Amino acid sequence: MTIRAYILxxxxxxxxxxxxxxxxxxxxxxxxxxIYGEYDLIAKISVQEMExxxxxxxxxxxxxxxxxxxxxxxxxxxxxxxxxxxx
Length: 87
Known about the structure:
Elements: E1 3-11, H1 16-24, E2 29-34, E3 41-47, H2 50-61, E4 66-73
Antiparallel strand pairs: 1-3, 1-4, 2-3
């Protein structure tokens, strides 16, 4: 069973690009981006089991400039119109 999740990150000021690039290099990460608002970065991830999600979060949280993470597991996913077959 594939588990998808979004992880929001608060990072030290001025480290957004550096941390986004580091995060994007992990195999579990599908996309990573800098965002505006309460959080600084977002990553969409895919893992095979909850245990892998826990392991991934431990790796991510060990990066010094990451101050806070918030993880949201996707319950159900829908494709956007442009990504649907025959759209």
